[in-house]
Design a protein that fits this description.
By secondary structure, the protein is mostly helical. 78% of the residues lie in helices and 0% in strands.
Length: 413
């Protein structure tokens, strides 16, 4: 099926970014000096956001909310492959030249293609009558995610203007980057996966409290705009805005907690028939979900905000919590539940377990930076440990990839 192939393409990007991420970790252990680190970082982040997550959600949205003919429609097929062209272009050009003419051109094209997708998908999903009745709880999350995707593009367009004004490296330039990341990670990514999880409840005809999920939606959606202020250093904004930021984080935490509790109440019904590895992925999704909202709210405290902004590892830990813990584990579970990813062989299960283990250990060490002053990190091979467990994530993903193709050749467990 077309959707199976597209999901495997998306998974390929996940392996590519794991290779790049492992290389960057190794560079801190044994300085390699082969590539420009900042350029490689740009390539890593763009392929993660626009390659793996965007491609996976593109496929997931079409499968979930349009009719079965959507994958045969030329507009979606051409749009998918044009988007892949821009992703490959960004992978190469960002690694070679960083932010420059060609890399900016490819990323700009991707944004334009995302606008076209938003238009086509919104129109076609609303034509599908069953969505109005069966998916009335999940669709608001899906449309909200697309709203945030559109708004996030203001950030990259602003960067071009600021660069033209010779403001690269300024506070405004940095805030434009954080604007994009906030509405991608905390908006587009988060609401998309929360919506797809609700879709899974709906198609399984699991009884849910629609009213509470609606309340949770509004508590997360409205403050989703003002919670951008949590991504801005409190040294650069008026004091009253710091209060708005903190309140926004608390309100979103309440909404996230309601969603978490309601999903938790249906956990037995939603995971029925799954093996243990699939259940662990679902538990990882839930744990990452509530952890994300707790950390986001905590960042509204003035002292926490300062610690986060001066410690790059904590920022990376949060980004990976959302990217790998919330989004990737959530998408893995969704695709497994629909039969797009296999998990019934030893190779597949080993791959997912290594991914989970590597993620958990690296997160533990990244967030241990909060304990500076309590733990003497000079006696711990910190960078080496991060590299080893990043390598574990890569090996796990490679197992998963090969397991999808050759899984039947391995012993079933």
């Amino acid at each position: 099926m077309v959707e199976n192939r597209w999901i495997k393409i998306a998974l390929s990007y996940l392996i590519i970014i794991a290779v790049i991420g492992t290389y960057m970790r190794l560079n801190f252990v044994v300085p390699l000096g082969t590539f420009n680190y900042e350029y490689i970082l740009h390539s890593h982040s763009h392929v993660a956001i626009l390659g793996w997550v965007y491609s996976a959600l593109y496929t997931g949205f079409l499968y979930s909310y349009t009719d079965s003919n959507a994958f045969k429609e030329k507009k979606y097929i051409y749009l998918f492959w044009l988007t892949q062209f821009t992703i490959i272009g960004m992978l190469a050009t960002f690694a070679i030249q960083g932010y420059a003419v060609f890399s900016i051109a490819f990323s700009s094209l991707h944004i334009i293609f995302s606008y076209i997708f938003i238009f086509f998908f919104t129109r076609d999903s609303r034509k599908n009558l069953k969505n109005r009745f069966i998916h009335s709880s999940s669709l608001p999350y899906i449309y909200a995610s697309l709203t945030f995707l559109f708004i996030s593009s203001i950030g990259p367009w602003s960067l071009g203007i600021l660069a033209n004004q010779k403001m690269i490296g300024s506070v405004l330039y940095r805030d434009a980057i954080y604007f994009y990341l906030h509405f991608q990670y905390n908006g587009w990514f988060t609401f998309a996966v929360l919506g797809l999880m609700l879709w899974l409840l709906e198609i399984k005809h699991i009884e849910i409290n629609k009213r509470l999920f609606k309340i949770a939606f509004w508590l997360m959606f409205i403050p989703g705009f003002t919670s951008y202020l949590l991504s801005v250093s409190y040294d650069t904004i008026p004091e009253y805005l710091t209060y708005i930021a903190f309140i926004s984080g608390i309100i979103q935490l309440i909404g996230g907690a309601i969603y978490f509790i309601e999903i938790l109440a249906s956990i037995n019904a939603i995971t029925v028939g799954n093996n243990k590895t699939a259940r662990i992925l679902f538990y990882l999704f839930l744990t990452s979900l509530i952890s994300k909202f707790i950390l986001q709210a905590a960042s509204g405290l003035n002292k926490s905000n300062h610690i986060i902004f001066i410690n790059r590892d904590i920022v990376i830990g949060y980004i990976h919590l959302v990217m790998l813990g919330l989004i990737t584990s959530g998408l893995f579970y969704l695709f497994i539940s629909q039969g797009f990813l296999k998990i019934n062989s030893l190779l597949n299960r080993a791959g997912f377990i290594l991914f989970i283990l590597g993620f958990a250990i690296t997160e533990l060490f990244l967030f241990s930076q909060f304990l500076i002053g309590i733990i003497d990190f000079s006696v711990i091979p910190y960078r080496l440990i991060l590299f080893i467990f990043s390598l574990l994530i890569l090996i796990g993903l490679l197992f998963v990839w090969f397991g999808q193709i050759y899984g039947k050749d391995f012993k079933e467990v």
